[in-house]
């Protein structure tokens, strides 16, 4: 069972999202670049990320997101399990200190396999992965930080929904001195 944003427990939505977008709703440039994202100063504001990260058991991300993160100077996830959704083997070894594995299947199957291993609370990342988990009704919490920049085009956070509207309840909004605005939403059960 997974805790939702207001402390209630949901047996059906074990995933949460913590992500940044441009003001016009893109998570990356068309080529996947995220050079427009501000880089937090060491020891500076983390926008609540550490608290969020400490509350999850594992990360689930798409291959493109993994390849982007893999190129960072240091692996940002420590020894927390990272599941990369792909049908192909990864090129090269896992990043130093990283616990990385690949999996394929529908979001419901991924959740079931990970829950069987005791990994019940998931952090989903990457545009297609977030979209698939939302569409499957497996996300109960979204924290979206808006960066004050317009990209004009890029990779959108949200896409078509095959199961109808996803209704949200606003939980909180915070603004930061650097202009970032962060909103948290509880994803309401579908009707």
Automatic annotation (TrEMBL):
<protein>
    <submittedName>
        <fullName>Bifunctional deaminase-reductase domain protein</fullName>
    </submittedName>
</protein>
<feature type="domain" description="Bacterial bifunctional deaminase-reductase C-terminal">
    <location>
        <begin position="17"/>
        <end position="181"/>
    </location>
</feature>
<dbReference type="Pfam" id="PF01872">
    <property type="entry name" value="RibD_C"/>
</dbReference>
<keyword id="KW-0614">Plasmid</keyword>
<dbReference type="InterPro" id="IPR002734">
    <property type="entry name" value="RibDG_C"/>
</dbReference>
<dbReference type="GO" id="GO:0008703">
    <property type="term" value="F:5-amino-6-(5-phosphoribosylamino)uracil reductase activity"/>
</dbReference>
<dbReference type="InterPro" id="IPR024072">
    <property type="entry name" value="DHFR-like_dom_sf"/>
</dbReference>
<dbReference type="GO" id="GO:0009231">
    <property type="term" value="P:riboflavin biosynthetic process"/>
</dbReference>
<dbReference type="InterPro" id="IPR050765">
    <property type="entry name" value="Riboflavin_Biosynth_HTPR"/>
</dbReference>
């Amino acid at each position: 069972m997974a805790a939702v944003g207001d402390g209630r427990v949901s047996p059906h939505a074990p995933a949460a999202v913590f992500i940044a977008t441009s003001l016009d709703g893109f998570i990356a440039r068309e080529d996947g670049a995220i050079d427009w994202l501000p880089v937090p100063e060491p020891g500076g504001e983390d926008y609540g990320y550490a608290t969020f990260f400490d509350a999850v058991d594992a990360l689930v991300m798409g291959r493109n997101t993994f390849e982007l993160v893999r190129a960072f100077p240091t692996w940002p996830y420590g020894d927390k399990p990272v599941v990369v959704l792909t049908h192909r083997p990864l090129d090269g070894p896992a990043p130093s200190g990283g616990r990385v594995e690949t999996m394929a299947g529908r979001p419901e199957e991924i959740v079931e396999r990970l829950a069987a291993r005791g990994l019940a609370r998931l952090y989903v990342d990457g545009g297609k992965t977030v979209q698939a988990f939302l569409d499957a009704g497996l996300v109960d919490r979204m924290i979206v930080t808006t960066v004050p920049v317009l990209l004009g085009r890029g990779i959108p956070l949200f896409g078509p929904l095959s199961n109808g509207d996803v209704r949200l309840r606003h939980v909180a909004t915070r603004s930061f001195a650097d202009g970032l605005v962060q909103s948290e939403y509880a994803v309401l059960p579908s009707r």
